[in-house]
Design a protein that fits this description.
homodimer, 179 residues, alpha/beta, Nucleotidyltransferase, domain 5, 5 helices
Chain lengths: 179, 179
């Protein structure tokens, strides 16, 4: 199972690709960060992010995409841009019919360090050990993207199957809006 | 000048196309609403919205796209979806090099009714009169999308030119992030 983890953002969007499976060793395939200049318009920034993300998806052919769940809290001025940036990996997954998973920051921290309140340095340190990297991934957004992918390998598979079953059941019962 | 106004949302996304110009009569070209079922995944909903919005842009060839500016306030559970939905018209504009404008709800209300705190009924009533429609556009999201387009025709042209000049100046001075 190959997972592309995405830590969404307009200024910096972390991307990390990890191979692994339940009870199998994990391997880092790729890691990086996409930056878009704050002086560009929001549309141009989203498009630049999409072009780069699509390139990653084409090159690494992930089996699933895991995105950090964005909350409406923290710095209000950046949260809208982060939410808009998170639409890009969601579209990429939907267009290809790939499973899309969302994990909260505390789920990712708990999966990787055992502590849902771990700080960025702890996450970077643990992800470096878990993936047996010779140096720590930088910036923190890149390490976070790898942590998301690892979290998804470890807990995502089972969870997506449950979520899919719930979604199918909800559709059968006609829950939610209709076109 | 033809403007596509978009009132972003996942449950209902209002779309309105208006022809007009400074000191020229306004004409409604099209109005509608895109709905995506709440039982679908977020990726599928964004993709369905994108498919429909792209169809509108292809069919009506707007000269500019005006999107309601989303704020991180109000109902936190829907605000993230609204922000993600707003990425779709932003991408559509950027992909075609079309000017993208964002107007706040109070700017739109002030432009259309003269009162930045007008309620939905007042906006719908005024937009029906301004565009000389035989019946009021429904739902409110459709009327809001037309109001956005009208607002942009009336005040958007001049403003986008100023914003563009500011953006160009900022780029020359190296303000903001770098790739």
């Amino acid at each position: 199972m190959r997972v592309l983890g995405v830590d969404p953002g307009l200024t910096r969007c972390g991307l990390g690709v990890v191979d692994g499976g339940m009870g199998r060793p994990l391997r880092m395939v790729a890691v990086g960060v996409v930056r878009t200049p704050a002086s560009d318009g929001i549309g141009e920034r989203l498009l630049a992010l999409q072009v780069e993300l699509e390139r990653w998806v084409e090159e690494y052919s992930p089996d699933a995409i895991a995105v950090e769940r964005v909350f409406a809290r923290g710095d209000v001025s950046t949260i809208m841009g982060t939410a808009q940036a998170s639409a890009i990996p969601m579209l990429a997954a939907a267009r290809r019919g790939l499973p899309l998973a969302m994990h909260t920051p505390s789920e990712v921290k708990a999966a990787v360090t055992g502590n849902g309140r771990a700080d960025k340095a702890q996450v970077t340190s643990m992800i470096t050990r878990i993936l047996k990297l010779t140096e720590a991934p930088r910036p923190a957004d890149a390490a976070d993207a790898l942590a998301l992918a690892v979290c998804h390998v470890w807990r995502g598979g089972a969870r997506s199957r449950i979520e899919e079953a719930v979604a199918v059941a909800a559709r059968r019962q006609g829950v939610g809006g209709r076109r």
